[in-house]
Design goal:
The complex is a heterodimer of chains A (711) and B (115).
Chain A (H helix, E strand, L loop, with lengths): L2 H9 L1 H4 L1 H15 L6 H15 L9 E6 L1 H7 L6 H12 L5 E4 L11 H7 L5 H6 L3 H9 L4 E8 L20 H6 L2 E2 L1 E3 L3 H6 L2 E4 L9 H4 L6 E3 L1 E4 L2 E4 L1 H9 L5 E6 L2 E7 L2 E4 L5 E3 L10 E3 H5 L12 E6 L7 E3 L5 E3 L1 H13 L9 H19 L5 H26 L5 H58 L3 H4 L6 E8 L7 E7 L4 E9 L3 H18 L6 H14 L7 E9 L4 E7 L5 E4 L2 E4 L21 E4 L5 E5 L1 H4 L9 H10 L7 H16 L8 E8 L10
Parallel strand pairs in A: 1-14, 1-15, 2-3, 2-15, 3-6, 4-8
Antiparallel strand pairs in A: 3-5, 7-13, 8-9, 10-11, 11-12, 16-17, 18-27, 19-20, 20-21, 21-22, 22-25, 23-24, 23-26, 26-27
Chain B lengths: L3 E5 L2 E10 L4 H14 L6 E12 L1 H16 L3 E5 L3 H9 L8 E2 L2 H8 L2
Parallel strand pairs in B: 2-3, 3-4, 4-5
Antiparallel strand pairs in B: 1-2
Chain lengths: 711, 115
Amino acid sequence: MSNKALLRRILLAGRGRLVPLLLLLLAALALHYLPHTPLISLQQSQFDRYQRLLPRARDQEPVIVVGIDSQSLLDHGPWPWPRSLLAQLIDRIQAGQPLALGLDLIFAEPDQYSRQTLGQRLPSLSPQVLQHLPDNDQQLAKRLARSPTTLAVVGLNNKLPGSRPPAHPLPMFQQDVRSEQALPRFATALVSRPELQHAASGEGFINGTQEENNQANTERGVLRRVPTLAYINKQPFLSLPLDMVRQALGNGEVVAEHDDAGMNAIWIGDYRLPTQANGELLLHYGQANSHYYLSASDVLAGRHPPETFTSRFVLIGFNSTGLQDRVITPLGDSLPGIDIHAQVIESLLMGAALKRPHWMPHFELLTLLLAGLLLISAVPVLPPKRAVFAFAGVSSLLIGGGYLAFLSGHWLYDGPSQSLLLSPLFISLLGNTLIAADTRRREAERQLQHSREEAARMAGELDAARRIQMGLLPAPRELFAQENRFAMAALLEPARAVGGDYFDCFMLDSQRLCFAIGDVSGKGLPASLFMSISKTLTSTLIPRHTDLGMAVRDIEVELSRQNSEYLFVTAFIAILDVDRGELEFVCAGHDAPLILRQGRIKKIDTAAISGPPLCALGDYPYTAGSAQLTAGDLLCLYTDGVTEASNGDSMFGNEGLADALHHQLGVSNIEQATDALRATVRRFEAGLPPADDLTLMLLRWDGPPPPAQSI
Amino acid sequence: MNLQTHEHAGVLTVSVSGPIDHVTSEEFASALDESLKNHPGQPPKVVLDFSDVTYISSAGLRILMLVSRRLKGQAGALVVARLNALIQEVFSISRFNLIVPTYPTIEAARTALGG
């Protein structure tokens, strides 16, 4: 077997469905392990596209960010600021009674201007002076204790110098053991100084997604998910923004909602935020907005009325080039990191999150398999063009379904990956369809070629048969070239290559002319074979009998012996005494010949002696009739190919023939007259194909010969 | 070709219509065979009602001849009734009425068959 044939056999195995089934299996595997394939970036970018299409509406602004920006640094000196200045800033904010305050800052070291630090740096300062200096950390701590405040902590996996656990874990928090294991865990944390820690009412972590799970997030630096809950030194903590809400609710109750697969939401008071199994929030971003950003410098200067902060969440953090971290969002915005905290608070209040539950990948696997099986069952029975439409339809359903799922409920359903994974399968199926179509085309071409060859061969054989059949017919002009007592012409045109009509003419002796016309029932090849036998028997048997009736009976007997197909022949057989004009004839079911005599058309009267066609009965006692011709009589013998010639509406008929014959009055060339009759019939048919074989025979008796001249 | 049949007193009458030429003769033959198969008279006596037959060619006559031979072989008979002038002329010229007798009416044909 050649390689090509082997390949073809593999492709067409299992009625062309084995390879597509294997490809479907591969597609399913690829979808199952999608996060480990390059397809993950296609999926991420599709999910980002959903968000760009429909970002989260931000009609309310519950959060205000007080940013330590470039202007603030210019007005109040470089970071770190003395904590007395921060205390002043918080003072301003607290004047408006915010819901909660969050500091995206960590004060791990003592203040730069503390007595201890200054004493070390400036040993010349007298202890009295130092005693009178204000304690900045104390001032800040005092402010922090005045309102619900959350400090930032950073969870650490390894102990750093000065690291210790935060002081405010969630009180009375119950967690299912199974879902607890999926949450981020840290051994210790980077926290603020103890006096500040204890002054604040809460602590929230500001870590991003942990590194090992961060494959997707680091891709192109887009931040798509943030943790909500983490364990630090085995104690549960909320993220900074969520803890701010908890503080605002007055130490609100926190409950982790979970099912068999892990966490699926977090409750803070009456607010519910859907999460992934590992407690991460898939952020549904709103459009970037700078309305809620205030400069710390302006706040310090009292440029905003205290009401600005009333009933708002207030975040304090960096918003200055060089100090801030920036993140890229799926919407394509570059935002200061602190903006994520604001978006998380908004999400919790709205209950808004993107939903990709643990069962969604299984559902995608199911739709992939269904779509694949649909294609495998449908494509092989469709013509290629429709197959392409079918695939386009399935792809549109998968991709469109994804958009619909997002628009209706913020579900993240990945259509494009499935469509992409199904395309090798489809190409393989389409290939099979094309191979099958090609095979059919080749087979059709082969058969066409075969039938052409067959037709050509038949045509060749029929052509030969036609030549033989026409060769059987006598040529009156050559036969009677020397004759001056009569003139004869005849023609035969088969409707097909060969036909069932015949005519004959020969001299029995110097005085008696035998002539005959016949028509075998049916036409084409079977009729032509029978015609040959009839014609041969007629010319052989007539000379053996003295009585024409007996001769015809003999012909019928012989013919019937060789007639397995029950064909029959109508015939008019006659003998003319060309010296005297005496006509003797037998009619076997044939049309009586016409006579044109002195300008008038008559029929030879055959009624008395006419019998059925030869072989119709097989043993009919034919008898001969007779008639006396007048000099100049023109006899016309014909078959029904003449009288039954049709123009689609009517038949040429006896009247048509009589009329046409009348026009030949006075035409001396009998061959011309025959041709003219034929032409008239063909004109009447008006281009329609002849229905039957056409035979015409004209015989003119020119009268008794002049008496021989005696010398 | 769909043939209407009607049996009365052991004689089957079959109504034929349209031209019976080289094109339709085979169809006519098989339809007629079917009718005879469904009504196997003993002996089979059949009248063909030709009132709606417009034309008959030699191929059509051959079918009549074949059926007639077969029925005669079973001691039955085939006759034709109600021929139009053209068809009657065809039967007369070809003397086919010697093989398949013709009658002006169905009743005459039935009477002739002894039905």
